[in-house]
Design a protein that fits this description.
This is GNAT family N-acetyltransferase. By secondary structure, the chain is α+β, with helices and mostly antiparallel strands. It has a single domain, classed as Gcn5-related N-acetyltransferase (GNAT) (Aminopeptidase, 3-Layer(aba) Sandwich), CATH 3.40.630.30. The protein has an eight-stranded mixed β-sheet with strand order 1-2-3-4-5-6-8-7, with helices on both faces.
């Protein structure tokens, strides 16, 4: 597998690894479960997800899952997923979903990660990035807006949950 590593000098994004499972489980809290994963993780479940993510990288599947890493030791601070195909996405749209562990929130790291992954998505042919946020998740909406996304139409998830969409033209990333 070609190892992708993105960095802005403050954070680095690289594919999730099996040795990230323990740090992910340690960082999981109620907001992360509520807004991102939908249920508390187990070691077996997290490792299975990471193996799936690695397979997606190896086969050029539609999912690119990155660990958000900080510092010289690249401590795992959270995750950011990029999906090139998913229900509700138009051709050329990519979905971005992110979550930081509690001790890393409030430092601008999620915004940095969204900007880095947006540039990567553009380099891989993405035309427009989409972030879908439940209306009560003000922190995630704020990240989208700080990263230059603009409010779009409201939609509903597969379970009927209302989602606010934020959009960013990725064509500006390649100019």
């Amino acid at each position: 597998m070609h190892e992708v590593k993105l960095s802005d000098g403050i954070i680095a994004l690289s594919p999730l690894r099996l040795d990230d499972a323990e740090a992910h489980l340690a960082g999981e809290d109620e907001p992360l479960v509520r807004w991102l994963s939908g249920g508390p993780g187990t070691r077996e479940g997290v490792e299975a997800y990471i193996r799936h993510c690695r397979e997606q990288w190896e086969t050029a599947g539609p999912l690119r899952a990155f660990g958000i890493r900080v510092g010289a030791h690249e401590v795992l601070a959270g995750t950011i997923d990029l999906r090139f195909a998913a229900e509700g996405l138009a051709p050329g749209q990519v979905n971005i979903a992110y979550g930081l562990y509690p001790s890393w929130r409030g430092r601008g790291l999620a915004t940095r990660a969204v900007l880095l992954v947006s540039r990567y998505a553009a380099s891989e042919g993405g035309k427009e990035a989409v972030i879908q946020v439940e209306p009560e998740n003000a922190a995630s909406a704020a990240v989208a807006q700080r990263a230059g996304f603009i409010p779009g139409k409201h939609t509903h998830g597969e379970d009927g949950t209302r989602l606010d969409r934020y959009l960013r033209d990725l064509c500006i990333e390649t100019q």
